[in-house]
Each structure stands twice: as structure tokens, then as C-alpha cells.
Design goal:
Layout lengths: L2 H10 L2 E6 L4 H12 L4 E8 L3 H11 L3 E4 L8 E2 L1 H9 L5 E4 L7 H9 L3 E4 L2 H18 L3 E3 L2 H9 L16 E8 L9 H5 L3 H4 L9 H9 L1 H14 L6 E5 L5 E7 L4 E5 L5 H9 L31 H12 L3 H17 L7 H12 L8 H32 L1
Parallel strand pairs: 1-2, 1-5, 2-3, 3-4, 5-6, 6-7, 8-9
Antiparallel strand pairs: 8-10, 10-11
Helix pairs in contact: 4-5, 5-6, 6-11, 6-14, 11-13, 13-15, 14-15, 14-16
The structure holds magnesium ion (MG).
Length: 405
């Protein structure tokens, strides 16, 4: 489809959108963007896991053709995983926003790719765990995976006009390095001893970004940046040797592309997820959005860059090791991380137990090279079970130690 036709079609009919995970942080912000541009976007389908009350309120406001509540019953809604696939493949849907967490998004994403839909991907775990299936399938089908993650949106914007605009999946040309920026999280200046004592409340107070709890804890451990390296590898078809991380505490520079001649392009802006969400929806247009704060260039401010500290933040190194090992190592990494972060948030383990337990899970992992989705699901199940058991055993040990004292 050429650009003229694209514009013509847009003028006559708003883009039909399905949101998988509409009640989560990204889902809610996606609906904010859609509500701002009713002439451009229309909600066709909404799917959520179990927040029935919020889903019902969203359905009443946006009046979609199809509503799906995966776990539970709701009047007028389809139940179960088949409902999510139906939402993703609805004939009036042009673009599917995948904002679910965990493995719940894989099947509908693949179904949407097969049905020729555009995909806007917010679920980085999907590519971390099953990138070898999902990204490869998208490439084969000629589907562009539009990134919603701010770093990947930044890279995507930087490579526009570099001869890679339509299909960034074939790998950008002339690129020496993709440099992902990290805020460094709330503990970037904390000592090792202070990190051992971090509470869930402290970890959930992110200095610059407003996000869901899992990704906020991942940002505090730098695991998030490790997962994003793997996400970038699959999204842009760039080898790990060409991916780098730099800490940018102000979260103003969202990521950078360094070209072969040493020229570096960066994308900057106030940190707000609605910007990358809107770009993924409106691509290739930058739409006005009056609710969003602007950069204030009238006052003096400095931008700081520093290398990540792998000693205090071992999760980034663990993710890079899993990425280099390949196969199902990244799936084991992601599954282990989800379990240990949940255990940290419920007060079962300490902050620095997160890298210790992920390291333990990777050590014991028996990898499958070139896995199928079934292999990946089995790794997910087995890794979570092993980590849960390990956490339970250490909790019992800690309790015994406590009573003996
Ligand atoms: Mg991000």
C-alpha cells in the first residue's frame, strides 16, 4: 500500500483497534490516546484477564464490537483464551495492541499476524520468551511489529528515513550500534548494603516513568534493560554485539542509534508512555496531543550519561548472558524473573535475592535450541515451578533460623 492510498483510507475510516490487556497500565493509556483522536481511531475489541469492573466501564465508554474477559464471567463478554484470539482477528480490526503480560499474548499475536493485522507490541516478554517464533513468523508474513516500549519506539523513530522505514524487521542498514538508555531506577546511587534492604514500596516508586508494578521492579534491578536488549534483537534483527546500554538518569533521551560513520541519532522527549503508544497507533504520523507536557527549553538543564554498574545490578549481566546462550535461556530468564519479582512484591524475598534466584534458575536450566512454542511453554512451567519451590524452601529455612535465634 502506498502512502497516498494509506492517507485516503485513513480519511474515510478510523483505524479499528483491538486492545489485549485493556485494563493494565498500557491498555488504559492506549484508551486515553484513542479518546483524544476519535476521528483517527476506533475501539473494535477489548480483552482483559480479570478486572471485570474496569473492563465493563471501558466497554460502556468505547462501545466495542467484542469484549473478552479471560478469567471469569461478565455480562455481554466472551470468556476464555478463544475470546482473545477472536478479538485479535476480528474482521474490523486493523491494528492489535498487545499489552498483556506473560504467555497469554502469544497465541492471539500469532493469530493476528496470520490474519494480516498490524501489531503494536507492548509485551516485551513475548519477544524475550518466544521471539524465535513470533518475530520470525512476523517477518515471514511481512507484518511490521510496531514497538510500544519507549526505547524501541525511539530507535524505530531514529531509523526512519535510513532505508529501513517500512520493514525494520530486515535489520537497519549502516548501523554500528543501537544504544538503549536506562533511567537506572530509584537505586542507581544506592550502595550494595542499601540494595539488600530495599522494600517493595521503595522499588515501586520509579523516579521518571509511570508503569505497572512488574516493569517498575524490573527497572529498579535493571532486568528491564536486559529484557529490552533481547526485545531489540528480535524487533530490529540486530545481533547482540551491536546492542549497548547507557544510563541516562533524566529519562529524556529515550535511546540512540550510532551509524557506521560515527554519527549518532537520538530521540528525546518528556517521559510519558502515551507518546510511544500514540506513535505506534498513528505511525508514520506525529499527532498533536495537548494533554502531554512539552520539553521546557526555556530553563537550563543538563543531560547525564554513565555506564551501567554490573556489580550492583547483576540482572543486566544475567540477561546478556542468557541472550548470548540463546535457545530457551531467555525464556527461562523471563519466567524466573516474573516469579521472583512477584515473590519480592509479596515480601517473601529480598531485593538482591532477585538476581540470586534468576542466576540459580539459569544455572539449572536444560536448554532447547530452536524451540517450538510448546517447548517454550514447558520451560515457562518448569522454571516457575522450580523457582517457587526454591523460594518456599528458603522461606522455611529462614523461618527455622528465626525461631532458633
Ligand atoms: Mg522501556
Amino acid at each position: 500500500m502506498n502512502h497516498m492510498q494509506d492517507n485516503g483510507q485513513r480519511a474515510s475510516r478510523p483505524t479499528g483497534i483491538a486492545i489485549l490487556g485493556s485494563t493494565g497500565s498500557i491498555g488504559v493509556q492506549t484508551l486515553d490516546v484513542i479518546a483524544t483522536h476519535p476521528e483517527r481511531f476506533r475501539v473494535v475489541a477489548l480483552a482483559a484477564r480479570r478486572s471485570a469492573e474496569l473492563l465493563a466501564a471501558q466497554a460502556a465508554r468505547f462501545r466495542p464490537e467484542l469484549v473478552c474477559l479471560c478469567e471469569g464471567e461478565m455480562e455481554g463478554a466472551v470468556s476464555g483464551a478463544e475470546g482473545t484470539v477472536a478479538a485479535a482477528t476480528h474482521p474490523e480490526v486493523d491494528l492489535v495492541v498487545v499489552a498483556t503480560t506473560g504467555a497469554a499474548g502469544w497465541e492471539p499475536t500469532l493469530a493476528a499476524i496470520a490474519a494480516g493485522k498490524q501489531i503494536a507490541l507492548a509485551n516485551k516478554e513475548a519477544l524475550v520468551m518466544a521471539g524465535s517464533v513470533i518475530a520470525v513468523e512476523a517477518r515471514r508474513a511481512g507484518a511490521v511489529l510496531r514497538p510500544i516500549d519507549s526505547e524501541h519506539s525511539a530507535i524505530w523513530q531514529c531509523i526512519q528515513g535510513e532505508g529501513v522505514a517500512e520493514s525494520h524487521l530486515s535489520g537497519p542498514r549502516g548501523v554500528r550500534r543501537l544504544i538503549l538508555t536506562a533511567s537506572g531506577g530509584p537505586f542507581r546511587d544506592a550502595s550494595r548494603e542499601e540494595l539488600e534492604r530495599v522494600t517493595p514500596e521503595q522499588a515501586l516508586a520509579h523516579p521518571t516513568w509511570k508503569m505497572g508494578p512488574k516493569v517498575t521492579v524490573d527497572s529498579a534491578t535493571l532486568m528491564n534493560k536486559g529484557l529490552e536488549l533481547i526485545e531489540a534483537h528480535w524487533l530490529f534483527d540486530v545481533p547482540y554485539e551491536k546492542l549497548d546500554v547507557v544510563v541516562q538518569p533524566q529519562s529524556i533521551v529515550h535511546s540512540m542509534v550510532e551509524f557506521e560513520d560515527g554519527s549518532v541519532k537520538a530521540q528525546l522527549g518528556v517521559p510519558d508512555m502515551r507518546v510511544p503508544i500514540q506513535y505506534a497507533l498513528a505511525y508514520p504520523d506525529h499527532l498533536p496531543y495537548s494533554d502531554l507536557p512539552d520539553m521546557d527549553w526555556s530553563r537550563a538543564f543538563a543531560l547525564e550519561f554513565r555506564p551501567p554498574d554490573h556489580e550492583r545490578f547483576p540482572c543486566l549481566r544475567l540477561a546478556m548472558e542468557a541472550a548470548m546462550l540463546g535457545g530457551t535461556y531467555t525464556a527461562a530468564l523471563s519466567s524466573a524473573d516474573e516469579e521472583v519479582v512477584a515473590a519480592f512484591l509479596s515480601g517473601e524475598i529480598g531485593f538482591m535475592d532477585i538476581p540470586r534466584l534468576v542466576d540459580w534458575a539459569l544455572e539449572r536450566h536444560a536448554p532447547v535450541q530452536e524451540p517450538t512454542l510448546e517447548d517454550i511453554r514447558e520451560v515457562d512451567r518448569a522454571t516457575r515451578a522450580a523457582v517457587r519451590e526454591r523460594i518456599g524452601a528458603s522461606a522455611r529455612y529462614a523461618a527455622v533460623r528465626h525461631t532458633e535465634r
